[in-house]
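Hi support team,

I submitted a single chain yesterday and got back a structure, but I'm not sure I'm reading the token output correctly. Could someone confirm the output below corresponds to the sequence I sent? I've pasted both exactly as they appear in my results page.

Thanks,
R.
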Amino acid sequence: MNQSERESIIVRTSIIGIVANIALASFKAVVGLLSSSIAIVLDAVNNLTDALSSVVTIAGAKLSLKPADKKHPFGNGRAEYLSALVIAVIILYAGITALVESIKKIFSPSTPEYAPLSLVIVAVAVAVKIALGLFVKKTGQKVNSDSLVASGQDALMDSIISASTLAAAAIFIFWGISLEAWLGAIISVAIIKAGLEALGETLSKIMGERASGELSHAIKKTVASADSEIRGAFDLVLNDYGPGRHIASVHIEVPDFWTADKIDAVTRKITNDVYEKHGVLIAAVGIYSANTKDDRTSGIKEKVQKILKGHKDIIQMHGFFVNEEKKEIRFDMVVSFDADDMQASYENAASAVQAAFPEYTVHAAFDTDISD
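Hi R., thanks for writing in. Yes, this is the structure output for that exact sequence:
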């Protein structure tokens, strides 16, 4: 699916959401005002915020397709994350406003008057919201749209809210107990919680999250399979420029007899294979040279690995090479993010290796497990 097709699906789904939510909000507003039900009125307001969220989703999808330019050379895909951020703020604002109104009603209550038709309308609204929520969420997952997924999840939560207004009506009809204002407050808190969660998730994506393990493992497998002599793929960095828009870099470990011509051919193949299979653009392929001309280096490598295994915060070593002519040992050490002091863990491990090989100059590069 290309970006244009994806945008069409997002826009079409959002328009369906707008029409459905405006219709539901209109019916609920009339029912709520006629029955003096603050809970139903707030439910109507919530539907309006959902419609507005769909409008923002469309705007974000349109902006994300704007072509790259000199100022934004990586495109405008992150506009979708910004639209999801706006939706989260809208939900949060609606929840806070609703909570204020509900608290006012707790101190100045009014007696609701329910009609059978009004309850039927609310019951139909519950069914519509469930169907709409499932449809929008499933579509969002299909096209990898955080905005649609958030809107669908919000719609499913709305169906629970609408169902609770029916429960409050039944309690009032059968027992004469009015829970309207208190239910409105509970609904408001639920809306605020949803807004905060959406806000947190979106901010996390904007700040830059770790790539999924499934994607990073798949890319590394593709990279390593580009040539039978590649000894491993490491240091995969995935930069997220919007849903489905990743630019990456990776290192490969290759035999020390490879020529520049061979490296050029293989790295080009890696770039093509990764883009075709995963839709990820590899911007750079770094090279680690592996010893093949001196059998003694394997013994040195085994000894270094044994030393590093004694340091629990060092989770991997790669890019190992011994230069006997210059008496140098070089490699990368991956330090765990769980270490109490990552820098201290790195320095202790590097010092231990240097102490074991005083005749060599040890160049141990500090590395982190950016991807699985």
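A quick pointer for reading it: The chain has ten helices and six strands. Let us know if anything else looks off.

Best,
Support desk
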